[in-house]
Design brief:
The complex is a heterodimer of chains A (132) and B (113).
Chain A: H1 5-32, E1 42-43, E2 46-51, E3 56-61, E4 65-66, E5 73-75, E6 87-89, H2 95-131
Antiparallel strand pairs in A: 1-4, 2-3, 5-6
Helix pairs in contact in A: 1-2
Chain B: H1 2-13, H2 17-43, H3 47-71, H4 77-109
Helix pairs in contact in B: 1-2, 2-3, 3-4
The chains are: A alpha+beta (132), B mainly alpha (113).
């Protein structure tokens, strides 16, 4: 099946869907930790990887890194995590950024899904030629 | 008959590992039939058909392996869908080609001698 371009199209679409699903998972983790004090949002990176066996360039999920930007400092002296001056460090999650990222992941997922079903349709069209 | 056998087997596989076992039993005669076909064809001189049948059953083995890996949490759902789509296309190809062969044979039978 390695030389079948339709099969490799479906394989790369499947990897794309997997990567976008992972990205959505990270976004969801960030969103759920919006109110965690001192939380740094996670960032996903994707990378290309050449697979010598099949001669294809495959998508793979790179390292997950932490956004080092400091979160907002909230003045709340009664808080148990407050520092000497009465400030509490909040998470650096921006909900707008996370929701935009989630929307982007969802759209990319849809694009890969469309590629997948398009490849299937193309192959079925090819088979229809034999069916007469 | 082939289509409903494997199609039902694939549907049952989605449930759980227990259902997977029954589906494996349902798939087993299908694989044996392929091997019979391949040995019959290769003895008749067409070894290419035998290779094709082997590749065909390898696709279904891939589905079984992927589903088992998914059930044990080692593979993601996307690879299961991909393997099943591959198997579906392979099955459709095989059925279409078989239909053409049978059709050609029947045409030969109808030929006035």
């Amino acid at each position: 099946m390695t030389n079948n371009p339709i099969a490799s199209a479906m394989a790369s679409a499947s990897q794309g869907m997997n990567a976008q699903a992972f990205r959505l998972r990270i976004v969801s983790e960030n969103l759920s930790n919006t109110d965690t004090h001192g939380y740094h949002r996670k960032q996903v990176s994707f990378k290309n990887e050449f697979d010598g066996a099949s001669g294809e360039t495959r998508l793979s999920i790179g390292d997950v890194s932490l956004d080092q930007k400091l979160g907002d400092r909230l003045f709340d002296p009664s808080h148990p995590l407050a520092d000497g001056q009465g400030f509490v460090l909040m998470s650096n999650v921006d909900m707008m950024v996370e929701l935009a990222d989630a929307r982007e992941a969802s759209r990319s997922y849809e694009a890969n899904l469309t590629t997948f079903s398009q490849a299937r349709k193309m192959y079925n069209g090819l088979l229809d030629l034999i069916r007469r | 008959m082939e289509v409903s056998g494997i199609g039902g087997g694939l549907g049952a596989n989605l449930g759980a590992l227990r259902q997977y076992k029954t589906a494996q039993k349902a798939l087993a005669p299908e694989n044996n039939a392929d091997k019979k076909i391949s040995s019959a064809q290769s003895s008749g001189g067409a070894s290419g058909v035998g290779k094709a049948a082997e590749a065909f059953s390898a696709v279904f083995e891939n589905v079984e392996n992927t589903m088992q890996a998914h059930a044990t949490g080692q593979a993601d759902a996307h690879s299961v869908v991909e393997a099943m789509a591959n198997a579906e296309l392979a099955l459709e190809t095989a059925v279409t080609i078989r239909n053409r062969v049978v059709e050609a044979y029947q045409e030969l039978l109808r030929m006035p001698v």
